[in-house]
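In the previous chapter we treated chains in isolation. Here, by contrast, the input contains two separate entities that must be folded as one system, with a combined length of 724 residues.
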Amino acid sequence: MKTGILGGGQLAGMLVMAGIPLGFDFTVLTPDSESCAAQHVKLLLSDFTDKKALHDLADWSDLITFEFENIPAESINYLERYTDVRPGLKSLKTSQDRLHEKEFFSGLGIPCVPFYPVNSLKDLHKGADILGLPAVLKCRTHGYDGKGQVVLRHIEDSESAFNLLGSKPGILEKLIDFDREISVVAARSISGETAFYTISENIHHNGILHFAMTKPCDPVQEQAEFYARLLLEKLNYSGVLALEFFQTGDSLIANEYAPRVHNSGHWTIEGAKTSQFENHLRAISGMRLGSTALKSVAATVNLIGSVPDRAQIPGNSNIYLHDYGKAPRPGRKVGHITVCADNMRDLGKLVPEFLIRQQLMK
Amino acid sequence: MKTGILGGGQLAGMLVMAGIPLGFDFTVLTPDSESCAAQHVKLLLSDFTDKKALHDLADWSDLITFEFENIPAESINYLERYTDVRPGLKSLKTSQDRLHEKEFFSGLGIPCVPFYPVNSLKDLHKGADILGLPAVLKCRTHGYDGKGQVVLRHIEDSESAFNLLGSKPGILEKLIDFDREISVVAARSISGETAFYTISENIHHNGILHFAMTKPCDPVQEQAEFYARLLLEKLNYSGVLALEFFQTGDSLIANEYAPRVHNSGHWTIEGAKTSQFENHLRAISGMRLGSTALKSVAATVNLIGSVPDRAQIPGNSNIYLHDYGKAPRPGRKVGHITVCADNMRDLGKLVPEFLIRQQLMK
């Protein structure tokens, strides 16, 4: 199966690693010759908007997918004329615009934080009035890892907040108190089969995911799956998708979804019977989905800034290094470690130890 | 860690897949542009004897290893002048010559089948007389997958047997009745740490391994580890090694060893906490060894001739496909399937089902 991937980061790299044993052949389109997927696969170096390159990729591929959601929708639209792109345009476009995403959630009855569209300073004032402060003003598009958002605590800061985000169309979201953040990674195949991984509890720091820990038998698993299934069905989705929630009390409030494999699901490589990467490829290519059952409880610990010395990785342990092959840089996600354990107690002990050792707990 | 690999088959491919997440960078030297490792990594196309290419590889590499044992010893000797080659020359050379290998086993007190060196037809007669018939006449070098050997049942067939193997230096080995074939995959790091995987019981057909099934808590595990440890120590070995045995009653009789990752250990990718491929790289690069403990009981089923249609792979199961990306050809090892199960009873049920489905049980 000749599969084109748009985007050349670590997600593309891990898709390739999962697909080669299944007999997939890959080409990665990326504008960046330093893409870390270059370790694994041939790159087609080009902007995502270059028609010639897109056409070449479509021509070569039986199937195209993408590893991040900021691919221009017009490019997907163009590619869909020539070949199958999975997940398709609707799933991508809805996730690209925070307003459309929230409206889509609301339309399906998936609870989300109260929000108000902001096209002008006047809208912002009105929104602040309706929702109450504090609230978060976010760009509608191109936000990730905490970028493109500002917390508004006092109405008199409205103008500077609006200016800070470049006076672009935005969305004001009520800042809610929540008990924790969780996500569910879900898969749906082209024949409509669905599967769900064990939810993870996610800890962010400066807007970047720092660790994600599986929560087997959690009371909100069923609720998370219910909303994720609804989303998959209504998007007529194929592939893997991650749906992030805030939890307050017993209730889940959808935050956003990513129409792709997701950082909070990296633990599935070692911790689940089938990784999210393999299941994404199974889902989009007409294979049956692999089992999402746990092999062991597991956590993903992101490596921010630099990768530890390999010689420091303990032996004979349940610690698995994933070095993305990126140059070290403060604040950059350069790899992750999966920690597996026989039970949550052991996992709870191992993970903080690792966080401290990696100086992630700053 | 820049690591050169001599040989570009599936073993090189799986080493690369295991090494990339650990931050290894690879170059594969192979004479064959169709090498299946080409899916994963840049190839240096050259004969194994080309000094210029060897020098280029040594120059680029921090470390060199090999994926099969028929690399000319002179090439390893040459490379060792410029960089570290692990496992080294002695481990390779001893395994390349069946006579030296058996003499080495005997010298260490590792039981092996009675044997007799054959340099002439006269030697063959004498050997047949001493060992008794039936016996197997084997080439001393370059035999694999049942090639380069002939069973001698009647003394009057000696001349034709000797001619059949090209009148080359050989070894006559007593053909013994055995209950089963097993192997142990073992690792030793450069600091001398050792680790052993659960033994596997191996079923061959026409000289090719068809399946290998883990045998946890087997009474001969300890005996197999004892001999393997002895071998690792006396070779001052670094890397992964497989030692194959015949078992008769409670006793193990060493057949041969492979100074590399081994087909009977492919199940470790899904079935063990650390795969043989990762542990080979850990062992040769100064890392601590990873745990060899079972994640689940597992078996490797080789795919001979062709790979099944991906759409036929059952979903939601414990079946893992490894397609080597080779052109199908009768008798060719083109991939393998790992079957995992919670217990031996389930594994026993799954594996025959798969063997039958793959028409391996002919």
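The CA atoms of residues 120 and 167 of chain B lie 7 Å apart. Chain B touches chain A at residues 1, 13, 17, 20-23, 25, 39-40, 193, 195, 273, 282, 285-291, 295-296, 307, 310-311, 313-318, 320-323, 325, 335, 340 (CB under 8 Å). Compare these points with the single-chain example from earlier in the chapter.
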